[in-house]
Amino acid sequence: MCGIVGHVSTSLVNQQIYDSLLLLQHRGQDSTGIATAEGNTFHMVKLKGQVREGYRTRDMRNLLGNVGLGHVRYATSGSAKSEDEVQPFYVNAPYGLVLVHNGNLTNTRELTDELFNIDRRHLNSSSDTELLLNVLAHALQDQISGADLTPDELFDAVAEVHRRVEGSYAAITLVSGYGMLAFRDPFGIRPLVLGRRYDEAGREEWVVASESLVLDSGGYEVVRDVEPGEAIFITNAGRMYSRQCAEETTLAPCSFEYVYLARPDSTMSGISVYDTRLRMGEKLARKIERELDVSEIDVVMPIPDSARPAAMQLAQTLGIPYREGFYKNRYVGRTFIMPGQKARKKSVRQKLNALPSEFQGKNVLLVDDSIVRGTTSKEIVEMARWAGAKKVVFASAAPPVRYPHVYGINMPTRGELVASARTVEEVASVIGADALVYQDVDDLFAAITDGSNVTQLDLSCFTGEYVTGTVTPEYLAWLETAQTS
Ligand SMILES: O=P(O)(O)OC[C@H]1O[C@H](OP(=O)(O)OP(=O)(O)O)[C@H](O)[C@@H]1O
Ligand SMILES: NC(=O)CC[C@H](N)C(=O)O
Ligand SMILES: [Mg+2]
C-alpha cells in the first residue's frame, strides 16, 4: 500500500509535500518521490528508502512551483528494489503528465500487451503504475480536440481508464500547464480524501491525500472523500471541477486499511480508524469470553504498535489489566511492509523487546491486529515464554488471512499465509501459542461499518471473494509465480 498526496497551493509547495509524505510514511517505506510543476516545467526527485533520510536540502530547493504531488511506495507490483519503479512516473505527451498511484492493477498482462502492440507505447519497467499512466495518456491523447484542454476532456479520459483498467487505483496526476487531476477506481478500494484551506488573502488551497491525518495536520478542512469512480480536477489557479466518470460504482473500501494499514487518527469513508479498532477489540473480547476461561488470564498485552487500540478495549471489556510488556524501538519501521522475509524476521527481534517483570509467572493474552505470515506472532510468543510467561494465549483482531490480497497489499501467495491451509489449532501450534482466537468475519465487518453509510467492504484476504469480480483462479496462479520481491 502506498501513500499519495497532491497539493495545489498559492505559494511554494515543496515543504508541504515533504510534510505530508512524512505523515504517510507508515504506508510505504521502499522509496519516495516528489514532483512539482513550475509553469510548464516539472521538477522531480525520486529516492530509495524513507522520507527523512532521503531528501536533501538541495533536492527540496529545486522542487519549485505551487502545484505538486508526492508518493511513498510499498511495492505490490514489479520489484521493491528497482530504481525504475520509484514513483512518480512521467510521460511527455500529451502535455506532460506525472502520476502517483496507490493500489494494484489486476489486468497488467493484458494492458502490457495492448499498450505495446496496439497503442505503440513504450514501457520501461514492470510497474503497474507505469501502465496506468500510459493508459491515461493514451486516452487523453484521443480526447484532445481544441487548443485548450477542458475538464471534460480529462474526465472522458478517466472514463476510458475505468473501462480498460481492472484492480485498485487511487491516483493523482499533474497535467503540465493545466493543473492536478485525482481519481479513484469504481469500487473505491484505496482511499483518497479531498481537503481545502484558505491562504491569508482568502484564496483556496487544495490537497488530496490517502489519509485525512494529512489534512488535519496541514490545517485543511475535510471537504469529502473522492467518490469511487469520480475524478477531480483542480486548475493551477485553484479552480475545482469534478465529475463521476464510471458507468457503475460500488463503494467497497479495503478492510485491511482499518485493520492495519491506516493510522488510527485517520477517517476514511466517514469511518474513524481508531473507533473501528476499539470496536474490533470489543467484539473480539466477546468471542474470547465464549471460547476461553477468562478468569485464568492475568494480563492483556498489545503487540505494538497497530494492536494498541483493539487490545486496550479488549482488556477493558474483559475487565483484565492492560499492560505493555513489549517495548518497541521506534527507529525500526513497520516490519510487515518490508520487502523480503529475512528482513521482516530480523526486524521483529530488533523492534520489540520483552520486559520480564510483566511476564514472570503470568498467563498472558497477547493481542495483535492481524496474523499474516505469522512472522511477528511466532517470535513474540517465543519472547513471551523466554520472559517467563506461564501460559501464552494469542488473539487476532482480524480473522484468519487465508487468501492473497491483490488490491495493493503485498500478500500475493497462499503459501506465505500461515492460515491459508491450516485450522486455527494448527496455526496456534505453528506460532507456539497455548490457544488462539481469531475475530469472526461478520464481527470485523460490523466493527468497520457500524454507524456508517458503508454497506460493502473488500474482505477478500479473509473470504476469497474479490469485489471487482475480475480476479480469476488463473490470475491468482500466475501471481504466485510473478511475486513481488
Ligand atoms: O503475521 P505477520 O506477517 O508478521 O504480519 C502481521 C504483523 O505485521 C504488522 O506489524 P508491523 O510491525 O508491520 O507494524 P506495526 O508496528 O504498525 O504494528 C501487524 O501489525 C502484525 O503485527
Ligand atoms: N502499494 C501500492 O499502492 C503500490 C503501487 C504500485 N502497485 C507499485 O507497486 O508501485
Ligand atoms: Mg504489528
Descriptive notes:
With 485 residues, the chain is of the alpha+beta class. 33% of the residues lie in helices and 24% in strands. A seven-stranded antiparallel β-sheet has the order 3-2-4-1-10-9-11. Strands 5-6-7-8-12-13 form a six-stranded antiparallel β-sheet. α9 crosses α10 (308-318). The protein binds 1-O-pyrophosphono-5-O-phosphono-alpha-D-ribofuranose, glutamine and magnesium ion. The site of 1-O-pyrophosphono-5-O-phosphono-alpha-D-ribofuranose (PRP) has 19 residues, from α13.
Name a few traits of the molecule.
PurF_N; 6-stranded antiparallel β-sheet; binds magnesium ion; 485 residues; Ntn_hydrolases_N; 7-stranded antiparallel β-sheet; 17 helices; 21 strands; alpha+beta; binds glutamine; binds 1-O-pyrophosphono-5-O-phosphono-alpha-D-ribofuranose; EC 2.4.2.14; globular; glycosyltransferase
How would you summarize this macromolecular structure in one to three sentences?
With 485 residues, this protein is α+β, with helices and mostly antiparallel strands. Helices cover 33% and strands 24% of the residues.
Task: Give the topology, please.
Elements: E1 3-8, H1 14-23, E2 31-38, E3 41-48, H2 51-54, H3 57-62, E4 67-73, E5 89-91, E6 97-105, H4 108-117, H5 128-143, H6 151-164, E7 167-175, E8 179-184, E9 193-198, E10 204-209, H7 213-218, E11 221-225, E12 230-235, E13 240-244, H8 255-261, E14 267-268, E15 271-272, H9 273-291, E16 299-302, H10 308-318, E17 326-328, H11 341-351, E18 352-354, H12 356-359, E19 363-368, H13 375-386, E20 391-396, H14 424-431, E21 435-438, H15 441-449, H16 460-463, H17 473-481
Parallel strand pairs: 16-19, 19-20, 20-21
Antiparallel strand pairs: 1-4, 1-10, 2-3, 2-4, 5-6, 6-7, 7-8, 8-12, 9-10, 9-11, 12-13, 14-15, 17-18
Helix pairs in contact: 4-5, 5-6, 9-10, 9-15, 11-13
The protein binds 1-O-pyrophosphono-5-O-phosphono-alpha-D-ribofuranose, glutamine (GLN) and magnesium ion.
